[in-house]
Each structure stands twice: as structure tokens, then as C-alpha cells.
């Protein structure tokens, strides 16, 4: 449900009349509407409210008006609807993979248009290259990394001990994942599973979790221009077969479609010994797991790896020059090393620049809790998240194929051939 946060009009309160507010503000005052998705666990809205209030205090001529718009899918739908109605936000956090869709809809403007000094060029270079891969295309910078992530593996150390496994060592490759999973899967006297060895969610963002398997199998799902996909390549089919086999052959993974939203809860309740999910759930898991847990890079197939994920800041093309200048100031403020570290600590997302990891706050945090370093170090093996023109339609074609294979409705090979055929049909006009 959409909610609106309006900062307190302190000037009006002091004067005793809201009609005097405009006179109390500087002549150059700018109000920015800011759409933000609330999509993962944790009290992110309070953190964001606090950061917006701090920014306003430091920049009294700018008011930030956050709109909490639900999931990422909800948020882009609302953004596009508002844009078509002539009421686009001034700035928004949307998925990095929405870049091509936003370009195709002609609703965003590249940051280069506003940030065009040599110092700005250095600012673009200050972010991790792995995150900029989903932020730039055609020689332009369309998005600025904010709440970015990779997929990591969490494991319950108590269940590892009970299974006779070293609680401080996660499975390092696909073979060990199966080996460990067999030892960790528990059944009651009637043969019903009470704890699954491993759980990888396949609702919500199935393509993203699947891209973990394809990356580990040494194959990419699309080209950098967003005009081609490779869903039916043999290595892609092989990766899907491995995922299907975890449940249908090895019986260490729940059958069918596994819910994204309940996977952390299943982990808390010891229904799953190992889960794969976003680093954005790290703070949630740390707060709610009543047992010692570990965090590791995903197990390697032919190689280690994960897609990046999460959201970028975008600027909208109907902004006035004054709104663009204010929005750029806000985005730069939010992504300063100190703020990036603060956001990462509060949420579990990966701090988006190397400089953020050198701040005193981050150094102290990881000294006490080193788990976030895993996601940072995994960036060297990361690839760009699946992103194409007509991205929602293309990912739906892939998601439908993945769920058909996982439920047994189609073989992995047939599912990926059908998904590729549909993606080709959608993308033909962009080639």
C-alpha cells in the first residue's frame, strides 16, 4: 500500500500558520518527490526517513517527499503510470534491470546530462564496476547504484553440527552442496521431510536465482546491449537440470515452486539448513535467527559467481534544471562513502563503493560482524543481472519456463527452448 511521508514544516509551526510556509523558505526552494520500493525485510522506511530528514537539515532549500510504493514491480508500475499522467517523480529507486524499460519509455534522463564535470566523471568511477554494468549503456550513465546486492548462501551452524559436518565450512562447489544436503535433510518416522538440506526460492525473482546457477556454470543469459538472450544454450539447460535435480533426483530441496518471501522464515524455523537469498536479507536474518549462522559465497560449478541485483537511483526527464540539480545533490549525498556505509549496515545491502568500506563505521562493523565482506568479495566473480529491452516480458518468459521445469510440467530443455522462442519474438524489433 502506498504511503506518503511529509517532513514537518518547522517554519510554519514557528510562525503559527501554514500559509506563511512559502515565505519562510528560501526563494530557490525545491520539493522532490522520491519513489522508493519497500521489498525486503527490515525497518528500511525508518532508516530512509531519518536519512531524508538529515539531508533536509543540511540542505534547507530542498524538501524530500518519499513515496513508499511497495515491491519493485509495484513501484515501476506506479512510476510509469504517473509519468504517463504527467506526474512522474523527480527521483526514484528502481531495479537496475529496469534501465532499458525506462529508456524505452522515454521517462528518464542520463546522469551525464546533469553531472558533466571532470569531478562527476570521477564520481561515476567511484562505484564498483560490477554495479555499474547494470547502470550504463550506449556510453551513458542512466543509474547510480544505491541498494545493491548479490545472492549469498546462509547456513545453520547448529544443524551442521547435528549432521556431523564442520559448522564453520560451507559447501564450496556443486558436488559438496549435494553431499552436505543429503546429510542435512531430516525426515520424521513417517518419512516426511522436517528439514530440507538446501532451499533456493523460485517465486518473485526466479530468473535472478537461476542466474546464480548459470553464472556458476560459466554462461551468461544476455548480451550487454539488451537485444539478445541465450536461454537455450546447452550450458543454460545444464544449469537448470542441476537445480531440478536437487529436488527430483537428490531429494534435498523442496519440490515445485519455493516462495521467495517465506524462505528466510523457513531458515529461522529450521525447516531449511542452507538457503540462498539476497544480501539485502542479512540484517533481517541477523536479527531473527536464534542460532549461530554462517554466510558464504555461493558454491562453484565450473566457477564461482552470482549476478548483482538491487536498485539504482534514476532521474526523470520532466525535471526542471532546478529539480535536476537538487536531485543530483540528493543522490550524491545518499551515496557518499559515510552514507553508503550507514545504509549497508542498516539494511544488509552491499556498500556500493570501495571508499565506503574504508570508513571508520564500516571497519568497526565488519570487525564485529564479518559476514558482509562475503558479498563484497563475491563481486569479483559477479555478472550483470538479466536486463533487456522489454525486460519484464522477457524475464516473464524465462520465469515461466523455470517454473514449468521445477514443477515437472516440462523438461529443462523444452522449457528453455520455449522461453528462448518467446524472448526472440519480443526482442526481434530491437536488433
Automatic annotation (TrEMBL):
Renumbered to this chain, region (Disordered) spans: 409-431
Cite a GO CC annotation: periplasmic space
Which keywords has UniProt assigned to this entry? Signal
InterPro entries of this UniProt entry?
Bact_solute-bd_prot1 (IPR050490), SBP (IPR006059)
Q: Does the keyword Signal apply?
A: yes
Q: What is its main location?
A: periplasm
Subcellular location per the Swiss-Prot or TrEMBL entry: Periplasm
Q: Which residues form the signal peptide?
A: 1-29
State where composition is biased (Basic and acidic residues): 415-431
- Show the PANTHER family listed in the entry: ABC TRANSPORTER SUBSTRATE-BINDING PROTEIN (PTHR43649:SF30), ARABINOSE-BINDING PROTEIN-RELATED (PTHR43649)
Name the protein family. Belongs to the bacterial solute-binding protein 1 family.
The protein here is known as ABC transporter substrate-binding protein
Origin organism is Pigmentiphaga aceris
